[in-house]
Amino acid sequence: MPEEVSTLNPNKWIDNYADYLFNYAVVRVNDSDLAKDLVQETFFAGLKSAKNFEGKATERTWLVSILKRKVIDHYRKINSNKGKAEVRMNFYADGDNEGNWIEERVPQSWDNASEKDIENEELKTQLDLCISKLPEKYAMVFKMKTIQEFETEEICKELDITASNLWVIIHRARTQLRKCMEDNWFNN
């Protein structure tokens, strides 16, 4: 049976993929305007490089891979212009295991769903505040590895750090986040 080859249909990209790509981007950059810009850049890059599409992946997978590069380029730009931007991250994202290193300390019993939503939003706000207090590089590396799930080698290459340096940064970021959350959330 011959392999099925995907084809591109740029006229349907906005209808079929804009929301998915926006959600993908906003979780990674925590800025809706920036996420919109990155999606737009993704569509332009897709149009420019459509001739390189081999049909081995779906349109969506191919566009996500372009968007992933745009996100990495964004962080590379921030990293090269230290002090020009505050890197913040959104702790909550899709996935069963995201943030599990701290979830063990969250109360497990809830009275009702609305209280849970309020408490989760308050927790997220406090965590965002703690993350904003991290050194820029710590926040960036922590987000790329823990939230965005980039591969170690990819982060090291993009940020020009060693694997052992990456794990030291992640450990220090987690330690600082845990202390900040203990001081400002769990002990209140």
TrEMBL record:
Residues 14-77 form the RNA polymerase sigma-70 region domain. Keywords: DNA-binding, Sigma factor, Transcription, Transcription regulation. SUPFAM superfamilies: Sigma2 domain of RNA polymerase sigma factors (SSF88946), Sigma3 and sigma4 domains of RNA polymerase sigma factors (SSF88659). The keyword Transcription regulation applies. Pfam families: Sigma70_r2, Sigma70_r4_2. GO terms for biological process: DNA-templated transcription initiation. The keyword DNA-binding applies. CDD domains: Sigma70_r4. Coiled coil: none annotated. It comes from the Bacteria. Residues 126-177 form the RNA polymerase sigma factor 70 region 4 type domain. GO terms for molecular function: DNA binding; sigma factor activity. Belongs to the sigma-70 factor family. ECF subfamily. NCBIfam families: sigma70-ECF. PANTHER family: RNA POLYMERASE ECF-TYPE SIGMA FACTO, RNA POLYMERASE SIGMA FACTOR HI_1459-RELATED. This is RNA polymerase subunit sigma-70. It comes from Polaribacter glomeratus.
